[in-house]
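A quick aside before the break. I want you to see a complete sequence-to-structure record at least once, exactly as it would be stored in a machine-readable document. Don't worry about memorizing anything.
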Amino acid sequence: MSMHKIALSLCLAGAMALPGLAQARPLTLTTQLKNYSGDGAYLAIYVTDAAGQYQKTLWVSGNKAKHYKNLRDWARGSGMNRAEYDGVSGASVGSGRALKVTVDLADTLIDAGYEIRVDSAVEDGRDNPADVRTPLTTQGAGKPAAGRGYVQSLTYDM
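That is the input. The structure line, written in tokens, reads:
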């Protein structure tokens, strides 16, 4: 194959890849926990469609996967399939602390009826499915959504 054909092939491959790169954006999620007594909280942050059906895991916090079943709505939707949370998990979050993570999110999920949800649980404490539910919209970016369990607020920035 000539150098000209190789260069042309590389240019075409790059041009085809660029639209795919432009279709995702970084989303920074900040989850502030309330002050509570007990161990660190397990959190599952995920996206649901307009019908409330699980679509994608954004982040899971907590070191012991055996406790993930207590994040009930997320566990049911994701099937607790390791592929759903490998690479998007970290340590649990303590009382009064904040978890801040940045994830890549497809542009097609924004302003299209999707929600970000957070399930929370604390060992020997109560579980809070859908502790936070907030529409995934450009207008909602930067505005805290209140939690009803261990989470005080969830804010996302694009």
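Two observations worth writing down. The helical segments are 3-22, 72-78, 82-85. The mean pLDDT is 88. We'll return to this after the break.
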